[in-house]
Amino acid sequence: MKRIDLIKVEHNRKIGKECEYIEPNVTKDCIFYADGEPIGFYMSKMPEKMCKLADLANAEFKSKNVPKSLMDRISSVKGKFKNTATNIGQGVEQMSSILGSIPPKPMVRRPYPSRSSVHSVETAQTFIKAMLLLAKESEELIKEILPKQYEQQIELFKDVPNKWKFSNLFTSSISNYNISAPFHRDTGNIVGAVNVIICKKHNSKGGDLHIPDYNATIGQQDNSILVYPAWRNVHGVTPIIPTFKDGYRNSLVFYPLKAFKGLK
Q1: CA geometry: angle 71, 12, 182, nearest 5 deg
Q2: Structural domain boundaries, residue 183
Q3: Which of 87, 92, 251, 256 is deepest in the core (most CB within 10 A)?
Q4: Rounded to an integer, what distance in angstroms lies between the CA atom of residue 213 and that of residue 232?
Q5: Measuring CA to CA, which residue among 224, 50, 238 is closest to residue 132?
Q6: Cβ–Cβ < 8 Å for 138, 50
Q7: 204: closest CA among 217, 222, 181?
Q8: Apex 261 CA angle, 109 and 96, nearest 5
Q9: 97: left (phi over 0), alpha (psi -120 to 50) or beta
Q10: C-alpha dihedral over 150, 156, 159, 162, to 10 degrees?
Q11: CA distance 116 to 155
Q12: Stretch (H or E) spanning 98
């Protein structure tokens, strides 16, 4: 895999602002280095077993089997691209579903941790199993490509009780369908740990991760995987632009929340 040394640059991106469309400049398999140390990697196509699991998880997610939070919006890039669904006035359906552990949220009168209610839904069990197997395969990939990171994350998770884990290196998972996240930083994540973002994409462009600190836009094509410490930098997702009817981008994300360290 190619080595990419991440070098900081000046920028004016602010947390909460929408990310504009940017052509990706990282499209080949690579390992990311910062200050001489490997901190993440990108593969444009995962191993075949992982691709099959991602296909299954994605199909189940899109079906009626899995409960989802829904919302609709009109694309902010309407009219900017020819021959796209956004140009004929269609809205973009957005959906998400969380698995694993949910941290306490005192502001909504839930001052205690919990497990996602999706786990109790009988029809969602195939989706949950596929996502759990995908998390485990992702961990094996991290162990192979970033062995020091793997050992570090195992160590960081010694204080996370097993009941709050989703596989071994994560506490939670979210599937984000057609959601372009504005610039943010994952401050709730365990510092020193990495996230995994697996992309399912069909008849669409955009939906790439932009890290302005390094002027890096990572092209998240179908069945790609990105492993990156999301707590480290501000980042956002470029607009998702359907190129034909029913085009979409779905990200299958595994992440480690620090709220579960030391809990019983």
Answers
A1: 10
A2: 2-260
A3: 256
A4: 10
A5: 50
A6: yes
A7: 222
A8: 55
A9: beta
A10: -30
A11: 25
A12: strand 91-102
Q: Total structural domains in the chain?
A: 1
Beta-bridge partner residues of 173: 99, 254
**Cα distance between residue 108 and residue 114, in whole Å:** 13
pLDDT tens over the chain, length 264 residues: 999 999 999 999 999 999 999 999 999 999 999 999 999 999 999 999 999 999 999 999 999 999 999 864 433 433 333 333 333 234 457 999 999 999 998 777 778 899 999 999 999 999 999 999 999 999 999 999 999 999 999 999 999 999 999 999 999 999 999 999 999 999 999 999 999 999 999 999 999 999 999 999 999 999 999 999 999 999 999 999 999 988 999 999 999 999 999 887
Instruction: Supply the DSSP symbol for 104.
Output: -
Phi, psi (5° rounding) for residue 151?
-65, -40
Say which CATH number the domain at 65 has: 3.60.130.30
**pTM for this one?**
0.91
Q: What does the pLDDT read at residue 71?
A: 66
Which amino acid makes up residue 181? A
Amino acid at 113: P
Q: Decide if 238 contacts 21 (C-beta within 8 A).
A: yes
Q: Where are the alpha helices (DSSP H) in the chain?
A: 48-62, 125-145, 147-156
Structure token digits, residue 190: 């365990």
Phi-psi region of 6 (alpha: psi -120 to 50; beta: other; left: phi over 0): beta
